[in-house]
Design a protein that fits this description.
alpha+beta; 7 helices
Length: 276
């Protein structure tokens, strides 16, 4: 699933083709892609609105229109791209939603597995139960190591599960959780409240570092994720842990292992990340 760096890259790639454009048409063929309101209302309300700003919150793409927010969650396989109306793209075979724009282009949403959602809403927090409970944005300047530590205190959860919890910090998923734990030299099964201040400061720093590197490399194209221009991100070429089970650790040479934590494949180095 696209995580913070992938969604941030999509947001950045959509600004140029969308900001200033006005919606002139609406189409869908899969009702469950429309998270709300119902498609008739959605069509009536979205037409005539202009894209003002596009931002990211956690793993959501948040487009500020004149009167409302157009919010997209890519989930597993969602892709957004802007293309001339007459052009035919490879991804169109999975297209389930599109908006026509006043310059003859279209914003298209393809989603092979159809878990993705598009919402039109007055406010962000009401779109899903999870949206209201999202934790802080880890890359915001206002989010400090002390805040991170304060959120860890009293949490009995294992670190991998905690990092995946969107109410703890927003935007981290399976890939960047494994990368952050590797770089922080912390075992995925360490209990959160067993970390001392120094260890939690290290994890805080590494969470931010791996997410920022992910953005700098424009996301990880290991499965479905593509940038809005259709090209791949490069982040996957720089992983230390994720997907490297059976291969030597790039730091110590020990063979990396894969296990399951919180129902997710979890990659780590048994030497660099001891379970103390
Ligand atoms: Zn190692």
């Amino acid at each position: 699933m696209p995580e913070l760096p992938e969604v941030e890259t999509v947001v950045r790639g959509l600004r140029q083709p969308l900001i200033g454009r006005t919606v002139t048409g609406f189409w869908f063929d899969w009702p469950r892609t429309i998270g709300g309101p119902d498609p008739d209302q959605f069509a009536a309300r979205v037409q005539g609105q202009t894209f003002k700003r596009i931002e990211r919150r956690a793993k959501y793409i948040v487009c500020h229109l004149d009167d409302e927010l157009l919010i997209v969650h890519l989930k597993m396989t969602g892709r957004l791209y802007v293309t001339p109306a007459e052009s035919v793209q490879n991804d169109d075979r999975w297209m389930h939603f599109k908006l026509s724009l006043d310059n003859g282009h279209e914003l298209r949403f393809s989603d092979a597995r159809k878990f993705g959602k598009v919402y039109l809403s007055q406010d962000f927090a009401s779109v899903t139960p999870g949206a209201a409970k999202l934790g802080p944005e880890p890359l915001e300047d206002s989010f400090k190591a002390a805040d991170f530590h304060a959120r860890l205190v009293g949490r009995k959860t294992v670190l991998k599960a905690l990092l995946l919890d969107q109410s703890f910090v927003a935007g981290v998923g399976n890939i960047y959780a494994d990368e952050a734990l590797f770089r922080a030299k912390l075992h995925p099964l360490r209990k959160a409240d067993s970390l001392n201040v120094k260890e939690s400061a290290r994890l805080y720093k590494m969470v931010r570092e791996v997410l920022q590197a992910g953005i700098d490399y424009e996301g990880a194209s290991i499965s479905w994720y593509r940038k809005p221009d259709g090209t791949e991100g490069e982040s996957q070429k720089h992983f230390y842990a994720y997907g490297r089970d059976g291969q030597p650790c790039l730091v110590c040479g020990t063979t990396l292992v894969k296990t399951r934590v919180a129902q997710r494949g979890t990659h780590y180095c048994p030497s660099c990340q001891p379970l103390e």
